[in-house]
Amino acid sequence: MRNRFGLPMLGYGVGLRTVHFSDHLGRPGGADFLEAITENFLDTGGRPLHVLERLAELTPVVLHGVSMNVGSVDPLDLAYLREVRALARRVDARWVTDHLCWTGVAGRNTHDLLPLPRNEETLAHVAARLRVIQDVLERPVHLENPSTYLELAASTMGEAEFLGRLADLSGCGLLVDVNNVFVSSFNHGRDAEAWIDAIPADRVVQVHLAGHTNLGTHLLDTHSDHVRDEVWALFARLVRRTGPVTTLVEWDEEIPPLDVVLAEARKARAVAEAALGDRDGRREREAA
Amino acid sequence: MTAAGLPLAEFQEWMQAVIVHPGGVDAGLRSRAARRRLPPSRLGAVVRAYGALCPVERLGIYASMYPLRTVEALRSDYPALATLLGERRFGALVREYVAAHPSTSFTLARLGDRLPSFAATWGPERGRGLRADVARLERAAAAVFDAADVALLDAPALAAALASEGESLRLVTAPAFAILAVRPGAVAVLDAVLEDASAPTSAERGLVHVALYRRDFTVLRRTLDPVPGRLLAALVSGLPLAEALSRAARRRPGARIVSGWLAEWSALGAFARAGVAPDPSAAR
């Protein structure tokens, strides 16, 4: 299945991190594509932007933001959105993503991905804002499911259902963070496989994979380790539904040498290919 | 309040008030801003209770991330100040600073913009000036690092502008350049952090001028002698050359010496071409 936006499968990439700038410049093409944290390249004319521009000439780049604040009741930050649009043009970003969350209210930014009640009020609110955001950016935005640590009494629907309805209402695509699916499901005692099975596969433009930290009472989305086996299994389950899908490995704490992160991206390719081989083999057997 | 939670706007005001409170979640829940939206006894009507953690503990996960994130961001921007103060005092400075100046930008890179002036009035009076100077140097270095690239005034263009304007010449500072007058001890602290040595105590009095500039996207630093330091600071403040010279020294340095200094500073990338010299591309 190809995503409904007709966006290409970029392959298996890694998040662009400052400690790896020299490695990427010295050995371009190590990853099929790179994902840049949008805000790290706005409001700067220094080395980060220079490096991103150089790398964007060699490797496809996507932008992943953390401050779009799509769920906030504050007015949209149009100046920020215009800067995102300019950066996307400057580095020929293949697409722009952010999170289903709010990051602050009353003009403040907590720089965290805060949870939203999943109900009709929030759905209408976020969909309306997304339509404006996409108009300003002049392109679809694809939203990621964040890791969450609390459930709100005002929620009336599951996350996968909410994301699917939001995508229908706003025209946005989805970035499925499989590690976040696992972390949130563990933290709230939900069924992660059911989440994967419920997400509208044709809306999925990109996948995130990362490691997390088990604190006993809950999992923390730290991006500080290898992808866990349970997350690989969920990824394979998702790929069997979406087909080949652009997939990225994130590593943000205790960042290892680039080769380690690239090896994780290669593992993602192998897991996806094996999952698709299983699926296609099963289909052939069923057809026979 | 509805039967199941708060309306979205009230929920967001409430949750933010709880998780950013410098006293922690319990204090946040009892704060006036939070109680205006939800009495602490009604917490269960907003945050579901289930599993191994109670609602207060679940809010606490978000509340604990806020100070970690702000301290980490400011430690990254102010490593020398953090070293000078030590982990515990730097954490205290950040907590008080962030409470007074919360982030309002899309980027954490702007969070520390007002830390130098805050540090100038924070903590015991002894050492305040040094702490503020270290912070000013680090803030300026970050600004130089992030500044836009512009066409620079090179030595031939500077010589031509000087020949044409004489001492009425006004120079335009390049965005990726800064000069500050700081206590010598502040420079010593930065050097010690770079060399991973313990911060020295400097008995030197007075101020030194430190130029911050960028080469190949790396920020570099140079301490200037008193007269050229004052002259460059006066030029950067926008004064014409004649007035800058009067301010820099009672006895004027010779024209050749001044030309040499100007050429040296233009080689550091101190001056922008725009507004000083004709745009070479316009002649084509």
Describe the protein:
The complex is a heterodimer of chains A (288) and B (284). Chain A has 288 residues and is of the alpha/beta class. Chain A has a single domain, classed as Divalent-metal-dependent TIM barrel enzymes (TIM Barrel, Alpha-Beta Barrel). Helices cover 42% and strands 14% of the residues of chain A. Chain A is built from nine helices and ten strands. In chain A, strands 1-2-3-4-5-6-7-10 form an eight-stranded parallel beta barrel, surrounded by five helices. A two-stranded antiparallel sheet of chain A has the order 8-9. In chain A, helix 4 packs across helix 5. The longest helix of chain A is centred in the C-terminal third of the chain and has 30 residues. Chain A starts with 11 loop residues before the first strand and ends with a helix. By secondary structure, chain B is mainly alpha-helical. Chain B folds into two domains: 77 residues, no CATH class; 136 residues, Outer Surface Protein A, domain 3 (Alpha-Beta Complex), CATH 3.90.930. Helices cover 51% and strands 7% of the residues of chain B. Chain B has a three-stranded antiparallel sheet with strand order 1-2-3, with helices on both faces. The longest helix of chain B is centred in the N-terminal third of the chain and has 23 residues. Chain B is elongated and about 80 Å long. The mean pLDDT of chain B is 92. Classes of the chains: A alpha/beta (288), B mainly alpha (284). At the A-B interface, helix 4 of A face helix 1 and helix 4 of B.
